[in-house]
Amino acid sequence: MPNQRQYSPADRLLLQADAALRTLLPFSGQPQRPTPAVLKNEAELSESEARHVAGLMRINHTGEVCAQALYQGQALTARLPRVREAMERAADEEIDHLAWCEQRIHQLGSHTSVLNPLFYGLSFGIGASAGLISDRISLGFVAATEDQVCKHLDEHLEQIPQEDEKSRAILEQMRTDEAQHSTAALEAGGLRFPAPVKFGMSLMAKVMTKTTYRI
């Protein structure tokens, strides 16, 4: 079996820059799976309903931008190769969510958040810092983050009209994937964060959701 290529620090920085561009530039991410919405019928939504759903999908899109940045930051500073590979693999899977949400937002006649570069930078810094502390903290951060995402997805599924099968199909598949990522991170040795830490993360998430719903 051929040896895997060993990347230098400069190589990894270039890979991080490429990942950032693929995340932030419109329609740059290439999903590995087709969108779950492809076989669903388009619903007849009122203008206010379409605007609301687009706002929710914009939140979810920005959440995926943050997830990409977290994983890339953690992969850059992870100590164990298996942890680095797990972070990079999870980031690849999250590209699907990013592309699905972006496509749906444009179908609804809206746009992704102009704040995405800011949230990418902040999330990358948090991910890299967690990786510098320890791989166990880094994996625990993944699990806690994915738990927060699952809560948001549950809330959004309650708000999206039942007849909007396309948006619902996307969020339901995302919900399944995110729960699996959380479980995998804990099984890999991630630390279970205490309630006060999770509460602080929840407050930060609220800032993101409030600002990106409209902007």
Keywords:
mainly alpha, 215 residues
Short description:
This protein is mostly helical and 215 residues long. Helix content is 73%, strand content 0%. It contains seven helices and no strands.
Can you give a write-up of this model?
The protein is mainly α and 215 residues long. Helices cover 73% and strands 0% of the residues. The chain is built from 7 helices and no strands. It has helices at residues 9-24, 47-77, 81-107, 116-133, 135-159, 165-187, 195-212. Helix 2 crosses helix 7 and helix 3 (81-107) runs antiparallel to helix 6. The longest helix has 31 residues, at 47-77. It starts with 8 loop residues before the first helix and ends with a helix. The mean pLDDT is 82.
